């Protein structure tokens, strides 16, 4: 195990000779040339560590204006060829790329204006990215390949738009970054005026196997947060997805933990699994003035656990209205017909909307289990839990009957909640919407008996630094209902009643909940981690419980 030192003039030669257990220290300097490490491998006990001294910076040297012209032309050419006008397909053009590498630790590296990508992982396993700093760029971290797994991203920070006045949030229309002719009334890419260079993510993955941990990172003034593409899990005709075991027929986007991160002014989607995804735990994150925290447009998916999160919108994007503006924030973006294979559990979250389109503006989400969430609105009379349902509190029950309310997933959330339809349950929530719950029930939304329409009485929701805590006098204090949570391997656990509704809990309350979640082994049975959760007791085994998950 050796400690080596490198500088910009010799880093490629130093990296070519790295062996298991080596540490490479990057000296102060500007690392301007792209660096590719191919087949560099440490071991579980002796990883290869690459760390940086202060002043060691990877950079392309290109400004936003210079790369912006390249990105706009790339998007324009893709548009002419019939593709979506974006630059994501160029993500492998990275400042630092790893191909077929294993057991690598990157620590303390800085990336400035690395267009389009700072760090790129291709068919890699057991890579830790810790305390990395990213400024500007299209994609901070890209990961690709069906064998890419066991990736940890922790304690990193990314600020994509470094303008003093937060131009991406307040001045640049959404369509100039990500618009297409289809979603902006036929407006084409402008090779001089668009901002396609910003059409990226903090973490973007293509068809990765999974076992991804994204923890304690700070992402602000960026277009997207965490974005997984999965093109590998489309079923052959005649295969019934509902009958598959968790590990049968799934090759990508399984086992993802997103926790303890802060997201501020994310202009599009914060967390977006595309099409196919399983066993995602999204907990203890903060979403501050984000356009859309969750984009769940899923085809085959299940076993999502979204809990212990705080989110608010007090300062929505402020640019003037124009085609493709996308300024009315909402919490969940959903697709159409999403049956899903496992439950989508959303519980113990606190949301506050001073203004915006609300929580579930439209669409459907199969097997949604929505329990014990605290939701406040700055304007309760115009709050919208389920989209354009009308101002029902001002009209009679007869006028607001379900029969007069047409089913249209383009304007409101589905009312088909039965097990024969989408299998949706809402209960135990406190929502500051004057129509919640009774007027919405009258329109066909089968809200549970323990649903309550009142303010959760957050401490300071509209402050410069919002505080969504509650006091003992809040109706949310100690009033949660009991829940049963079913895990992907069939194991279940109970959360008793009597906790707070919303994310704010007494110290230690989450420990017993957090410990139940983990990653399942892959289809071959190979362990993902070496730390195995304790066996369930004999009573649970007698009840037919399966072996438990492996801890994160």
TrEMBL record:
Top-level taxon in the UniProt lineage: Bacteria
Protein name (database record): Right-handed parallel beta-helix repeat-containing protein
InterPro entries: Pectin_lyas_fold, Pectin_lyase_fold/virulence
Region (Disordered) residue spans: 532-552
């Amino acid at each position: 195990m050796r400690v080596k030192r490198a500088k910009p003039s010799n880093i490629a030669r130093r990296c070519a000779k790295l062996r298991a257990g080596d540490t490479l220290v990057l000296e102060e300097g500007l690392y301007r040339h792209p660096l590719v490490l191919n087949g560099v491998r440490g071991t579980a006990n002796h990883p290869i560590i690459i760390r940086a001294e202060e002043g060691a910076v990877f950079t392309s040297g290109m400004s936003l204006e210079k790369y912006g012209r390249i990105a706009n032309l790339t998007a324009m050419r893709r548009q002419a060829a019939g593709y979506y006008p974006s630059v994501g397909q160029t993500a492998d053009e990275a400042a630092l790329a790893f191909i077929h590498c294993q057991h690598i630790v990157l620590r303390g590296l800085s990336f400035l204006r690395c267009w389009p990508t700072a760090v790129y992982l291709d068919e890699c396993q057991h890579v830790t990215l810790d305390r990395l700093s990213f400024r500007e760029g299209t994609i901070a971290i890209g990961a690709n390949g069906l064998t890419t797994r066991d990736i940890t991203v922790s304690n990193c920070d990314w600020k994509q738009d470094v303008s003093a006045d937060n131009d991406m949030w307040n001045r640049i229309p959404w369509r100039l970054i990500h618009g297409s002719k289809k979603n902006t009334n036929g407006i084409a890419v402008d090779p001089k005026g668009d901002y396609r260079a910003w059409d990226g993510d903090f973490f973007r993955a293509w068809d990765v196997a999974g076992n991804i941990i994204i923890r304690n990172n700070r992402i602000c003034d960026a277009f997207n947060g965490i974005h997984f593409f999965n093109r590998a899990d489309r079923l052959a005709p005649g295969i019934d997805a509902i009958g598959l075991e968790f590990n049968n027929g799934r090759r990508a986007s399984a086992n993802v933990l997103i926790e303890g991160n802060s997201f501020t002014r994310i202009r599009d989607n914060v967390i977006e699994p595309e099409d196919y995804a399983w066993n995602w735990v999204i907990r203890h994150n903060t979403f501050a003035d984000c356009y859309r925290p969750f984009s769940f447009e899923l085809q085959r998916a299940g076993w999502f656990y979204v809990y212990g999160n705080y989110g608010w919108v007090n300062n929505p994007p402020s640019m003037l209205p124009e085609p493709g503006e996308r300024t009315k924030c909402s919490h969940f973006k959903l697709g159409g017909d999403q049956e899903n294979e496992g439950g989508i559990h959303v519980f113990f979250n606190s949301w506050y909307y001073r203004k915006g389109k609300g929580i579930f503006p439209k669409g459907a989400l199969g097997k949604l289990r929505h329990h014990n969430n605290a939701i406040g609105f700055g304007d309760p009379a115009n709050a919208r839990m389920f989209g354009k349902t009308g101002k029902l509190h001002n009209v009679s029950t007869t006028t607001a009957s379900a029969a007069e309310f047409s089913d249209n997933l383009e304007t409101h959330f589905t009312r088909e909640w039965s097990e024969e339809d989408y299998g949706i349950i809402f209960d135990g929530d406190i929502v500051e919407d004057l129509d919640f719950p009774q007027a919405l029930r009258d329109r066909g939304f089968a809200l549970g008996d323990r649903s309550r329409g009142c303010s959760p009485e957050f401490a300071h929701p509209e402050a410069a630094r919002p505080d969504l805590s509650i006091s003992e006098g809040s109706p949310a204090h100690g009033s949660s209902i009991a829940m049963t949570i079913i895990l992907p391997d069939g194991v279940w656990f109970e959360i008793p009643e009597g906790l707070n509704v919303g994310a704010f809990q007494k110290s230690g309350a989450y420990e017993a909940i957090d410990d139940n979640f983990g990653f399942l082994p892959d289809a071959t049975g190979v362990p993902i981690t070496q730390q195995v959760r304790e066996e369930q007791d004999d009573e649970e085994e007698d009840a037919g419980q399966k072996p438990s998950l492996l801890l994160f």
